[in-house]
Amino acid sequence: MNSETKLRKAEIEDRDIIWGMIQQSIERRKQDGSTQWQNGYPNIGTVESDIAKGFGYVLTVDGEIAVYAALILNDEPAYSTIEGAWLSDGEFVVVHRVAVDGKFAGQGMVKKLFDHIEDFTRSQEIQSIKVDTNYDNIAMLKILESKGYSYCGEVLLAGGMRKAYEKIII
């Protein structure tokens, strides 16, 4: 059976579902021994702000929300200072706060999310995608490597150093 996946902007009505997914992800990070997302961030206010600013996106599978991410255009102040070097200095999409519903965990949904983000980036004629993750978020590190993202160095974000990646799209 082929499921239909779609990327769409999150609506305020999606807030509680998204927050539930983030809470699951916080717990999974903790179970994995990761320090990422263990200090009260992100929180419900983060989700509300993402949606209000138009940054919140959901990947749906046959209409059901499976993955959440914040997609921010050209704006991540922490990325202006990198220990290393970005691949480009043109326009970019920043990917933050990726969370998967436990029901969809382990099904390659984040890879599908990144496929949709790449299509979105291409459609907006934006040069690249930039993303950072915790050094101990093994699942995300493997996904970024498998999707062809290049390690560019480290950025200081949310009180700690994060591994920074970029992929040139156009």
Throw out a few tags for this protein.
170 residues; GNAT_dom; 8 strands; single chain
Radius of gyration: 15 Å
Low-confidence stretches: none
Question: Given the C-alpha coordinates, what overall shape results?
Answer: globular
Give the neighbour order of strands across the main sheet: 1-2-3-5-6-8-7-4
Q: Assembly type of the shown chains? A: single chain
**What's the average pLDDT?**
94
Helix content range? 25-40%
Count up the helices: 4
**Succession of helices and strands:** EHHEEEEHEHEE
The SS-based structural class is alpha+beta
Percent strand: 25-35%
The count of β-strands is 8
**Can you summarize the main beta sheet?**
8 strands, mixed
The N- to C-terminal Cα distance equals 33 Å
Description:
- The chain is α+β, with helices and mostly antiparallel strands.
- The chain has helices spanning 15-31, 44-53, 109-123, 138-146; strands at 5-9, 56-61, 64-73, 83-84, 92-100, 128-133, 150-157, 160-168.
- An eight-stranded mixed β-sheet has the order 1-2-3-5-6-8-7-4.
- Helix 1 (15-31) crosses helix 2.
- The protein starts with a strand and ends with a strand.
Can you lay out the helices and strands and say which pair or pack?
Blueprint lengths: L4 E5 L5 H17 L12 H10 L2 E6 L2 E10 L9 E2 L7 E9 L8 H15 L4 E6 L4 H9 L3 E8 L2 E9 L2
Parallel strand pairs: 5-6
Antiparallel strand pairs: 1-2, 2-3, 3-5, 4-7, 6-8, 7-8
